[in-house]
């Protein structure tokens, strides 16, 4: 333990890289891998659980409000026309057929080899468990016979196999990752997504206990099946939880409990995603823009410290761009006459995400492409439809004009969920609270809800993190200007760092630079904006696992972790001795 407090962090990483697992949970995907690996696994963060009967709804998320109101529809069309004016393309309802110039074809012929891979259809998941090979007894006996006897035995064997396949096949209890998204809606499975829009997906239809059980099941499956780390060996491994800024304190505590108590890691360290991005690129000061599938967050970091008052959370991301792509093509009647529904058929979302990543970019002029669209009807082989997609530069511009995206409304978790048991700014450790003393050394792979230490704490009201109703450029500008210091503002405007899958969109960097510069008020002395295209942790943060279970965020000396308002704004590690 003394060695851990004195060792140089880079030396520690080098020594422990082979037994250090990095976990970065997101709303749509989880990135996970060993620290020594160059690239982590990127796996859809979902699980399909078998039900006793075919469900009415294949997806268990919540009662999603997917209906666009009349006012939202008008605002969306208005946003489209604003973007069309900027991109120098026809307006939404402008008749393109009257143009004398043909449309440009974008990025099709030059990428034939890649397109052949991108155009391959997804296949339905086999929901049955793998059966052992049939006994070779029949083969042995048949080899001893001749002619008709051999032929009759072969027929008998084939009949036995058919009967085995039809009557004794067993459904898999749960399916994780991309396979879960490719389960046919006709199969007796429900898809669960434990995280939505940057928060645990808790609702009256998806209780907290089930959310936590699903998180545990997904992470345990990845560790066992993908990283080949069995439960019996996890006490030899440590975990780094790299968490997005959207999570609240209680959500972080629950995930930390899953890692230490249920997954049985020997130790864990909590890292803020923005800080990890800054450190990973060798910076100490930057404005980090994390552009995920469902949430876009902005936070400023100064000298390695996240500034909580600069945090902005925008309720849209890459999946919303994919939905906008579908709406755009349907409006222009370029989408095939097929039933594409990303809310009830997760396979359709996979297809749209791939089309978006392949063809959407931000660039002036008409951006068209010929693509293969697939139809996935219940239980049927996929159908292929070659079509010409247009206005492919409009959907990603929804990042700057979010009214174009019309994000689905996900009901927030119950207000009681945000009643944290400890306020990070209050010295609650002075108060005498009853503690649980009978801490058992026996841990079971099944998950429990919460740790016993939290049950007896008084409830202190906190507010859920606020979501902003503004575009990306306004969010970045507002975040940086909120620092209040001109020297820091100038440095941050020239150190904007884009991370996340959406950040790979072609043409996004110059678009961010241009639009952020125009969003800066004229009275501000800022004339330059630049986008920049080693995990570290404090030595004093290490504490024994028993201290975490008994004392929570209070360490043995009575000092409390309160250097930042948010739990994840500093690196904290918990050791299982």
UniProtKB/TrEMBL annotation:
Protein name in UniProt: Actin-related protein 9
Record SMART domains: ACTIN (SM00268)
Annotated InterPro entries: Actin, ATPase_NBD
Family statement drawn from the similarity comment of this UniProt entry: Belongs to the actin family.
Pfam families the UniProt entry points to: Actin (PF00022)
SUPFAM superfamilies given in the database record: Actin-like ATPase domain (SSF53067)
Range of residues in the leader sequence: none
Naturally occurring in which organism (per UniProt): Citrus sinensis (Sweet orange)
